[in-house]
From TrEMBL:
Signal peptide (residue range): 1-31
Homology family: Belongs to the SIL1 family.
Domain of life assignment: Eukaryota
Domain Nucleotide exchange factor Fes1: 153-225
PANTHER family assigned to the protein according to its UniProt record, in alphabetical order: NUCLEOTIDE EXCHANGE FACTOR SIL1, PROTEIN FOLDING REGULATOR
Keywords: Endoplasmic reticulum, Glycoprotein, Protein transport, Signal, Translocation, Transport
Protein name stated in the entry: Nucleotide exchange factor SIL1
Alphabetized InterPro entries for the sequence: ARM-like, ARM-type_fold, Hsp70_NEF-Inhibitors, Nucleotide_exch_fac_Fes1
Subcellular location: Endoplasmic reticulum lumen
Stated role: Required for protein translocation and folding in the endoplasmic reticulum (ER). Functions as a nucleotide exchange factor for the ER lumenal chaperone HSPA5.
Amino acid sequence: MLPPGLPPFRMAPRGLLLGLLMASCFTVCLSHQSLGFALTNPEKSSTKEAEKKEAIAEEELESEVLEVFDPTHEWQALHPGQAVPAGSHVRLNLQTGAREVKLQSDDQFRNNLKGLKKGRRLNINTNTYTSQDLKSALAKFKEGADMESFKEDKERQAKVKQLFRPIEELKKDFAELNVVIETDMQIMVRLINKFNSSSSSLEEKIAALFDLEYYVHQMDNAQDLLSFGGLQVVINGLNSTEPLVKEYAAFVLGAAFSSNPKVQVEAIEGGALQKLLVILATEQPLAAKKKVLFALCSLLRHFPYAQQQFLKLGGLQVLRSLVQDKGTDVLAVRVVTLLYDLVTEKMFAEEEAELTRDMSPQKLQQYRQVHLLPSLQEQGWCEITARLLALPEHDAREKVLQTLGALLATCRDRYRQDLQLSQTLSSLQAEYQALAALELQEGEEDGYFRELLGSITSLLKELR
Ligand SMILES: *[C@@H]1O[C@H](CO)[C@@H](O)[C@H](O)[C@H]1NC(C)=O
Ligand SMILES: *[C@@H]1O[C@H](CO)[C@@H](O)[C@H](O)[C@H]1NC(C)=O
């Protein structure tokens, strides 16, 4: 998916960083020169220059004569530049930020000493901390405050903001600890700055968005993106004159909106819906439109207020012209799937409200104000959907059949009068009878074609 000419930034640094973070731990390590390097400069580590530096750091480490610390059974502060015999226990004192060392067990220690005498490299057995531990620990000694209650989301965002502001100071703290790690938040800030900077090249901007997309899949990260204005920067990216920037901004937004109500709300307030619709309504490369349509789906799903706005802004007309464009069958199928999702979502919401009475009255009220089916009927979607049944691919037809079914209550009269539709359905029925028979011969009782045949037959029955 990476456009040609872009360096493959993503895999190497991500693999490296992930390897370290996914184990959800970071290591307080004396060889901070090499480890710190890997953690702070994930992007550069794929470049030759970085490899060279790393190699140099390794060499320096090999030749460096370390002063060896003599641990006891008590925790003692470790000073920069001191080495610890293998097997010692090392911890980061989260109150003071000092690294502390004590003896782990005599036997182990002696064994390790033997190792030392044989001239082996130090093998430092260290405690591990999650990056989350570190984040809150640092926040603690920045603020001297209790950061336990991250629970209230508002509060959390405010704290994240505080975390964000003194980021240069945080980095200094990290440096003083000889511990260098980039939190997801720092990475996102860096990527947003890269993208937002007028001195970044187009390729750098796209690469930044591409990397950012990975982070915002996590709900917390997507919400953190809000806290420092990063989401708005990406939304504004939809205004770019570069189709690639539009495309990758939409790629990030689609991931950030997905099942994330807070982000969805902010995006609506930030004008994302209008911008997405403008892109869909104007001449743009297919790839950009695909990602924008995906972002639109994520923004609308489970968010009746956005659905209302979508209808008000003429979203259905925009989708209609998209479907009627030549050569965009892929988009047409996605549009129909989106409509199917919206129709069924509203239906289920209303059913669920009746059955369980769990849903908040406001939410139900909002769903009730989404006048989707009447708008679909007025704007000719009964016919548009029926025409799409002529698409050649089975899965496209499957989606269209689903949608025809969902629109049945609204469109029944139109369908009945639609001769072309009944002809298409009849010829599809014949086609899938044959295919289902073959399927059955191959021993598949509940095959795919049989299922399609079932949908067609029941539609024909309904329309009789
Ligand atoms: C993005 O850049 C603009 C203009 O250079 C600046 O005003 C804005 O604060 C930047 N936003 C972020 C989140 O860095
Ligand atoms: C983005 O473009 C829309 C029109 O498409 C315009 O109304 C809006 O002011 C622009 N926003 C920014 C931040 O440039």
